[in-house]
Every structure is written in C-alpha cells, then in structure tokens.
Amino acid sequence: MSKQPPLSNDIPSVRQRQRADGSWRVWWEPNKAARALGFEAMELDEDKPTASIRQAQKRNKDVEAARSGKAKRKAPAGGRTVAALIADYRQALDYRQKRTGTTRGYNTNLNHIEDKWGHAPVAQFDKPIMRTWYETLHANHGPAWAMSLIRMFSVLRTHAEIRGWRSADSNPCFRLKMETLAKRDRSATWAEYDALIAEASKLDRHAVRAAIALSLFQGQRREDLLIITAPA
Q1: Domain boundaries in the chain?
Q2: Which of 4, 15, 81, 188 is 20 to 30 A from residue 35's alpha carbon, by CA?
Q3: Three-state SS at 148
Q4: pLDDT in tens, 64-95
Q5: What CATH number should be reported for the domain whose range is 82-163?
Q6: Is the pTM of this model over 0.85?
Q7: Which stretches within 10-126 are classed as H helix?
C-alpha cells in the first residue's frame, strides 16, 4: 500500500486521503470565504495528477479573481451535492420499498459513490466524466464492479431529475459502451456441498447446516432464509 499521495501537498486547498483499499481520494476544498463566493468542493482524479494539479491551480485563480472583483460567480443551489442526493434518495419511497437484501447491495455502492463524489455538485456530471470514471474502475476493480457503480449512479441521476435537481436531458450514464459481462452459470459441486455440511456440523452450527440444505433443496433466496423463524 503506497503512502505517497498522488499530488504535492503544497497546492493550496488540495486535500488527499488514503482509503482502506490503498487508493486515494483527492479533492479541492474551498475555505469558508471561498464558499461564501459560491465555490464548492471539486473532486480530482488520483490517476491523472498533472491534470488534477492544473484543475486545482485554475480553481485557486478563480477564487482570487472573485475576491478581487474581476469575476463573479452565482452561489449554487444550497445542498445539491451528490451526498445530499444520496441522503434524499435513501428517504425516497422507491428506496424504502426495496427488500433488505437489495438495499444492502445498494448501500455498498452508495457509500462508495459518496466517498468518491460526495462533495461534487449533482449538475457537473456529463458523459465524458462518467466514461473516465468507468475506465478507472474497470482498470482498478474489474468490469463487474465498474458496471455496478455506473448503474447505481444512473439510478441517482434519475432520482435527481425526479426531484428537479437536474433537467430532463440525456442521462450521462447511458450508452457508455461498457463491457458486456459473460453470464455466470457455475453451481456448487456435490463435493463442495458435502464439505460445507461437514464443516457446519464440526462447528456445531446446526442452523447454518439447515440453511445450506434449505437453500439447495428448496431454492430459497438469501433474503427468504434470513426471515425464516424456528418452530416453537
């Protein structure tokens, strides 16, 4: 795990934080005075340090120009960041009506998106940004994870349109030419099933043993098994 941040630490307002998986979150963070002028945090790409440095330096110049009166910026609509959108979506009827197993998977993706883009304004995302992020995810984590996060962001984008946080223009997550994943059709072998049953018995985990058998012979989904109650 590299402890060296992607960017130099002497660039004003640039923040860098290493995640548990070793990757870095890099962003430009305005101070209180800059926020009063209408500036918001901007995510930077850890894999493109040169471009990120230029973006941060330009944003610093924009702040100085605004302070000197040479440029004016309108204050953005309050709270309309990706983090605010995720919080709003989690309170929405569509989200609350989903099964527990579904929301568990959603939350994994939503947490990752918030960690990466939480401070970014909802309106800033376009197709080039999403394609670049997809390619980065694909290279670092594989096609399945990349597609999962892009699809989750597409759900958020639709929610932003419903809430009126974005206009009804084309969804930047559509038609990104993502890799088509091969269908997985592998099933556990009888030897693997026997090994699981034997291990559960060895550990005196009889409820786990019963759940394994039920999942095989009755075709139950994980969520159905979790809500099964023992007979009185």
Answers
A1: 14-67, 82-163, 190-226
A2: 4
A3: helix
A4: 887 776 544 443 444 588 989 999 999 999 99
A5: 1.10.150
A6: no
A7: 32-36, 49-67, 82-90, 93-96, 100-117
